[in-house]
Amino acid sequence: MEPTVIGAWGFGSALFLLFMRVPIAYVLVGVASICSLITYAWRPGSDFIFERGLRPALALIESNAFDFIHSYSLSMIPLFIAAGHIAYHTRITTDIYEAVRVWLAKMPGGLAVASLFGCGGFSAITGSSLACASSMGRICVPEMLRFGYNKQLATSTVAMGGTLGSLIPPSVLFILYGMFTEQSVNKLFLAGVLPGILTITGFILVVMVWAILKPHHAPAPKDIVITNRDRFRAAVKGWPALMLMFIIIGGIYGGVFTATEAAAVCFVFAVGFGVISRRLSWEDFLGSMKETTFQTASLFFIAVGAKIFVSFVSLTGVTGAFVGFVEGLGLETWQVLFCIVLLYIVLGMFLDSIGTMLLTLPFVIPVVEGMGMDLIWFGVVVVKLLEIGLVTPPLGMNVFVINSVVGKDIKVHTIFSGVIKFLTVDMIVLALIVAFPIISLLIPNSMG
Fold first, then answer.
1. Which of 22, 25, 156, 347 has the fewest CB atoms nearer than 10 Å to its CB?
2. Which are the contacts of 258, defined by CB distance < 8 A and separation ≥ 6?
3. Helices 282-316 & 318-328, crossing angle to 10 degrees?
4. Could you tell me which residue ranges the TRAP C4-dicarboxylate transport system permease DctM subunit domain spans (predicted)?
5. What is the C-alpha separation between 93 and 127, in angstroms, rounded?
């Protein structure tokens, strides 16, 4: 059988299994392993011989898994995840929310804006949008509802705030994208800073306009007295989170750290702060390590599966056939880019962000690279699209996490109704990133 036919069937099978909600790691490893065996065993013009395909297929699986796991740059993933869990247990992440909440308490919509900053800081430090939606949803949503906030505004704010961690470093999506496309993770982190700032600024504008047009949806508290001393104390509480962000962004931009070194320094700082401030107990530390081990193992299993899948795609030559097909259509660059954007938006409605990215990169990157597009800029576009997919109906993961946290009193469609208002801003920011690549490339291109 022709290898390209096997490759096409393999990709189609993987997509079908993912739509059937089979875990992505099993899909990637299973489909790639079986189809690689078939490719080696059933060569064009000959019969299927199982023994002929077994040894090379096993060698492909073994070598890819071993080489990937032993990658030095991969060590930043457990370090960042561990630093995020420690930061949560030491209340570094929640202090961001508390600090902004005090400063904006009298402002209409102030609690919602504080939630955006809290969620953005939490998801950036932990690198997990879903963890942010789960944890901050328990803190921010009840607080806003207690002060009479509209249910749509309260829930959609936290759902959207959790997506900010995809762009603001450290982002697991950027790390995986960088490893699979052989791009600098340092530059990817820095490329996400300005788009991340644009996004959170747009979200704040949505909240402010919402509060102005419908003041009863975001009433300003009247019975709270906040002094300058309270504001000063709140600002001081936020310094550990700012230090972590400075280590990552400032350290990388200044050439002091690589991304992996920044991850190690962040972990040491978080643990040191927790011990000195007596916020980190031995039980919390062990719990953080267990959570880190579980999350890292899950990510590594997915990443290894993706690496094997990429090798299988390369083996069958289906990527070359796909690139040739796209070139044969004679489309302009903007038309190809439009199709790619549409592809990610549609897949993001049904698949999780990591699965969408790892499944499509083997096909999309050769097309983008062949058309002369910058892969650092394209990485930001992809991550922004994946960020949008986290809240896009009908299967926006962040929305369902928020729904599970707040309980049955608030329906899923209520959260989606609020999210749509923010999605308008997301699409505008996406259009700006696509139309003006300098937004993404300004900071990484100015590195010393």
1. 22
2. 186, 252
3. 70
4. 12-437
5. 12
Nearest to 105 by CA among 23, 244, 226, 259: 226
- Report whether 353 contacts 389 (CB < 8 A): yes
Measured between alpha carbons, how far is 257 from 259 in angstroms, rounded to an integer? Answer: 6
Place of tokens 């189609």: 12
**Of 2, 70, 72, 68, nearest in space to 29 by CA:** 68
| pLDDT top residue among 86 and 329 | 86
Give the span between the Cα atoms of 307 and 312, in whole angstroms: 9
What does the block give as tokens for 50? Answer: 């199982």
Helix pair angle (333-348, 353-370), 10° resolution: 170
- Confidence bin at 448 (pLDDT 50/70/90): low
| CB 37, CB 54: distance < 8 Å | yes
Based on DSSP, count helices (H) and strands (E) in the chain, helices before strands: 23, 0
Dist CA 384 CA 199 (whole Å)? 10
Neighbour tally for 215: CB within 10 Å: 12
**Residue 33 is encoded by which pair of tokens?**
């392993």
Distance of CA 348 to the CA centre of its chain: 12
Rounded to a whole number, what is the distance in angstroms from the first to the last CA of the chain? 52
Cα separation, 67 vs 149, whole angstroms: 52
Residue 415's contacts (CB-CB under 8 Å, 6 or more residues apart) are 152, 155, 156, 159, 399, 402, 403
Q: What is the rounded distance in angstroms from the CA atom of residue 284 to the CA atom of residue 105?
A: 31
Question: In 37-152, where do the E strands start and end?
Answer: none
State yes or no: pLDDT of 2 exceeds 90: no
